[in-house]
Design a protein that fits this description.
The chain is mainly α and about 130 residues long. About 70% of the residues lie in helices and about 5% in strands. It has a domain of about 55 residues: Multidrug-efflux Transporter Regulator, Chain: A, Domain 2 (Orthogonal Bundle), CATH 1.10.1660. A hairpin with a 2-residue loop joins strand 1 and strand 2. Helix 3 crosses helix 4. About 15% of the residues are buried.
């Protein structure tokens, strides 16, 4: 593993823009070293970026991601981080399941309205 990564290294590795990485830096989620205007990211920053991107894919907010990632460095450390993550996953799963039920109900309503429209159109001789 490399000691330092450039912003271009990380952007290429994680298939994100350098602007995205700078945004996460502005949000204090990662904190590279500075060498003049050049950013030097440590292995810790690389790991945090990986966790941030995973959290985004799972649908967590930046505030939730920050809370989870920051726990890694604080007591109770990884145990607390994992417990918090499990809790967040359970909440996210419940939210997605509710959204899925809402979508299924909406699709059912759309089908019902569409069928009534088609029946009425047919009755009017417009089929």
């Amino acid at each position: 593993m490399k000691e330092f990564y450039t912003i271009s290294d990380l952007a290429k590795e994680f298939d994100v823009t350098t602007r995205t990485i700078r945004f996460y830096e502005d949000q204090n989620l990662i904190s590279p070293l500075r060498e003049g205007t050049r950013r030097l990211f440590r292995a810790r920053d690389r790991t945090r970026l990986k966790l941030i991107l995973r959290g985004k894919r799972l649908g967590f907010t930046l505030a939730e991601i920050s809370e989870i990632v920051d726990m890694y460095d604080a007591a109770p450390g990884e145990v607390g981080q994992l417990r918090l993550l499990i809790s967040k996953i359970e909440g996210r799963r419940a939210q997605l399941q509710q959204q899925m039920q809402d979508i299924e109900a909406t699709l059912s309503d759309l089908s019902e309205v569409e069928n009534r429209c088609r029946d009425r159109l047919s009755a009017l001789g417009g089929a």
